[in-house]
User: What shape does this take?
Amino acid sequence: MLREPAPAKVNLYLHIVGRRGDGLHLLESLVAFAEAADMLYAGPAERLSLEVVGPFARALEGEADNLVLRAASTLAPGRGARLVLEKNLPVAAGIGGGSADAAAALRLLSRLWGVEADLPALAAGLGADVPVCLAGATCAVAGIGERLTPLPGWPAPPLLLANPGVVLPTPGVFGARRGPFRESRPWPETVADLAGCANDLTEAAISLAPEIAGTLAALSTLDGALFARMSGSGATCFAAFADRAARDRAREALRTRHPGWWVA
Assistant: This one.
């Protein structure tokens, strides 16, 4: 079977700069991708099917409108394939797991089926985070997520991800957000520039899931952590490090202190 990784999307910062007439929020963000990933496998078959395995497979049981199947049907209606999704990333966790899976399906099935299509256009129709997940590389993101500026030379730091076991659907977090909008600002040019940024959904997310505050505190105190922040709408948080060795030591320390958390 062919395979395609679906890495976790991490918002190094997320600023809310306005709101459209249809109620969707306008944002500015810098998105990088972690090493942690789901894995999608595909092989030829007469009918389209999806099997979900892995540590977070149960969270998708009974999901009638899985984004992977939607992506497949959008790419080539009526085509068959046997799909197996190894679900390693937590669901509804602010790291774009479903969007990354959909993007992986577009990439993988276009190879399996030999289909030439405008994948970015198809991705945009599947969800706000799918286009950046399709790109799969560090990007500046604006609008509702559809305006991407690739930043191939941007020095994304090694990241340590942690989730305290909280499921936090995105619509509820945006609905709980209060306060004014930020002014637009230039994209950060270095990791040091991120110190003046934030995730504007953090307060709203903590109001719904107080465990996030403890997660951020635990990450902030790790040796070598440059800063800690929530990704997307939560509840996954992350710490950035100057090098992989410091990140790896911190990861083992965090797993020892919080064995019940998802740490990657």
About this structure: The helical segments are 67-75, 97-113, 119-124, 130-135, 170-176, 202-208, 211-220, 244-257. The CA atoms of residues 203 and 210 lie 10 Å apart.
